[in-house]
Each structure stands twice: as C-alpha cells, then as structure tokens.
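Class, look over these structure tokens:
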Amino acid sequence: MTLYETIFVRRAVRKFDSSPLDTATIESVKKLITDTPQLAGQSARFEIVSGDKVHGGAPAPHYLLAYCEENDSAYANVGYIVQNVDLYLQSIGLGSVWLGMAKPNEPEQNYCILLAFGKTDVPLRKSAEEFTRLPMSDVSDTDNAIAKAARLAPSAMNSQPWKLHFENGKIVIQYFGRGLMKLMLRKKLNKIDLGIITRHVEVALQKEGKTIRSITPKKVGKSFEIEVTYV
C-alpha cells in the first residue's frame, strides 16, 4: 500500500501484540528516519526503545521517541518527520499511534513526544467516511484532493487546529486553535499537529505529480503557519 492510500485507511491503534518486531523491520524504520530530510534549520533527534522503557498510554512493544528544541518550528518538524514513519508503518501492515501523554521512564532533556508501534489485529478503516473530522469548509478554503488527504491527518484530542489556504503554487497551513483545546494544546501539541498535516499535504501533492520546492514554518504576528510551495 502506498503512503497516499494509507492516509485514507489509517487507524489509531491502542491494542498491540506484545511480541517485538524483527530486526530488519526496526532497521527499515531507522533508515527511513535517517533518509527523511528535516525542515530547514531543524535537527530533531530520534530513538527507538522497547516497551519497558515507557509508561502511560497504549502498551506497545516499541516506541519512537522524539527530542527537539522548545519552539514552534521544532515541534512542527517532529510532527512532519514522525508522521512519515506513522504512514510507513501502517502501509506495511503494522499498527501505530501518537501518544502525547506517555513518557519515557527516564526522559532526557528536550524530550518532545512519542509514537507507539508494533503488530496489531486492529483492522484498517474501510474508507475516509469512518474518520471523525470537521467539515471541509471548517479546515480549508478549497475542497480538492490535497485538502481531502490533509483533512484526515491525526491531531491531539482530534483538535484539528488548522486552516488551509490555497494559492497558485502555494498552500499555507495556518494554526487555528479551537475553543478550550486551544488553551490546552497550543504550546506544543498543536504545533506538532501542523507538522503532521504538512506531511499529508506533501504526500498528496506528490500523488498529483507535483514537486515540492520548499516547506517553511514561520511566525506571522502572534500566530504560526507553514508555507508549502510546489511546481
């Protein structure tokens, strides 16, 4: 299954088989992380640990830990990189889930967030209709194939803190916090979410035969957005 196809059937897995994955699979995940370019100016660090090294959230045989600086662009970069891993794992038949509340037993400085993963018997969704998401008009000014893929991106507490603006050769993903969740999640988790949706936008653009020219996170006044340009 391609990453694009995976977007439309991805499941949030909270029940894993306790048996560890084989070495080749773990090495393929490590290679993917190494081979995935980070956003400009960012240098997040990633580590895969076994289930006994983490507490809280869904018990899993493996966790991908992310470490980064404490700023909006760094958080978005983590979302962008780890969502690539999330889609890859599910595309090869494994399960995965973002866990914002789980923690390493001995967290190092600049710990950010983790992704749990492993084997699972939780079925993939059958179609995009099985996702619970806001109406397209709430999250995008245009209803097209790119927006449809972006709309299905996971987010903390399903907060969907974004608004997409389409221009000629450019998509702007604007931070758009909603209600009480805006106050709870805006500092870190919602900025990770913007990186996650950016990965969906990129995968969908590539499916359309577009070439990404740049992905630029930036402050705009008191807000935050990510600009994706393409040809």
Observations:
- The chain has two domains: 3-118, 128-230.
